[in-house]
Design a protein that fits this description.
Layout: E1 2-8, H1 11-26, E2 30-36, E3 38-41, E4 47-49, H2 55-66, E5 71-79, H3 98-113, E6 118-119, E7 122-123, H4 128-131, H5 135-142, H6 148-156, H7 172-179, H8 185-196, H9 198-204, H10 206-218
Parallel strand pairs: 1-2, 1-5, 5-6, 5-7
Antiparallel strand pairs: 3-4
């Protein structure tokens, strides 16, 4: 099995890797290892994890991963929404579509580190975009069927869930909280996505699909897909 190192933003993303990506990628001969961004340490060595505040934190966590010669690939799983403005490529961010902007930042990140085994990935616009793939799954997990028309209206406004916009009031997570204040990312997020399933997520989230295809191609094709 090839090792795949993924720098993730927090505990929820770590669970996504272990609960959804790991079983899928095992069929491609890959073993994904999520590493949560360490954002600080106390004098006694206690670590603080999650919640990226600066690019320096990301750099400090990524560089040691490049030293792992056993890793077939190093990648990231971080939200584009709320990304600190000191990231490479931020000052030259183009005025185009969300896809163009996130590809620009990913390319700048790759160029900054210049590591052949590094493939950066930023989620458009954030983790909760994937939850909107199937509003009924949210209703099932939260046991709130009356919520479906509200979430359906949000979903219908965009070509795909990843385009739900980048704004303090209208980002995917903000829309979820406005519709149902009891939603909790760590508590409900992975459960919703497990209910939806990885194949539906990849069908409806093109940027995520591109990343997943890169990961799959790093390993080997499953036996049932061999010519």
């Amino acid at each position: 099995m090839k090792r795949l190192l993924i720098l993730v933003e927090g505990q929820t993303e770590k669970r996504f890797v272990t609960d959804l990506l790991e079983p899928h990628l095992a069929g491609f001969g890959l073993f994904p290892v999520p590493k949560i961004v360490v954002t600080g340490r106390t004098n006694d060595g206690t670590q603080f994890q999650g919640g990226i505040l600066s690019f320096a934190q990301v750099e400090a966590n990524l560089r040691p991963l490049f030293n792992d010669s056993a890793a077939a690939l190093v990648t990231t799983m971080m939200d584009y929404y709320g990304l600190p403005g000191d990231f490479p490529g931020w000052e030259s961010l183009p005025p185009g579509s969300p896809q163009e902007r996130v590809h620009h930042l990913e390319a700048a990140l790759g160029k900054y580190f210049n590591q052949p085994r590094f493939h950066p990935y930023l989620m458009l616009h954030e983790y909760e975009a994937m939850v909107f793939v199937q509003p009924e799954a949210i209703c099932r997990v939260l046991n709130t069927p009356a919520l479906k028309p509200v979430l359906d209206r949000v979903r219908s406004q965009f070509p795909n869930p990843e385009e739900i916009n980048d704004d303090r009031k209208t980002a995917p997570s903000k829309r979820l909280l406005a519709a149902h204040a009891a939603y909790r990312k760590r508590q409900h997020g992975v459960e919703v996505l497990q209910s939806i399933g990885l194949e539906e997520i990849r069908k409806n989230c093109p940027h995520f699909r591109q990343w997943l295809e890169v990961l799959e191609s790093t390993g080997r094709r499953p036996a049932q897909q061999s010519p």
